[in-house]
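re: ur question from earlier - yeah i can do the single chain one, its not a big deal. heres the input i used so u can compare w yours
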Amino acid sequence: MKRFHDLKEAQELLDKLISKEIPKSPDKDLYMALYDNMLGLAIVMEPNDFSTISAKSMLINATHRINEYVAQCTNENKKSQAERYKGQVGINLVQLELEKNHYNAANRIALSNLEHVKKYSEGYVAEAYSVLAYTQFMLGEYQEALHTSQLATNAHVEIGNYDGVQASREMLINCYMKLRMKVKAQEEAQLILDKSFQYEPIESKN
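and the output i got, formated as tokens:
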């Protein structure tokens, strides 16, 4: 519902979650983290002076809840589930910082979160690389962003996500243009036109 921008329906489902479903769950802490994350993202859908601040508070709270849950949970499968979810919360936090043009803060979170998802949640690695590349680009670290975007492209290729592949190639084009490598940029543009799943050669950061 959130992704389709149906805020009213999202709010009704969140209300049902907090009033009826979570109280019945033996994993209340984990599902409260899910609730905090989703509520934070729903808040952002109604932009005002405090929406981003409120949403950030909810996402930070979700992270704390997950940490507390993992610390006391003895079920390895559920702990793994919580750690995977923490990776998505981290990506959401990066995106909130980017919305406020807090590029240094976004970059710090993105770097830390990438290491987390590499360890706990391979399914989020491609997205984590992508958001890190964007923070690097916005900080003017074009060579770093180029390298990270190559890794992001290949990670999206691995999971067959063409939208992710295309977005990563677009970032590569931006990096190549900033680095005055127009031929490389043209090659990437052709790969987009071809809808190619070709792997990117990983170049040195230097």
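The two ends are 44 Å apart (CA to CA). not sure if urs matches, ping me
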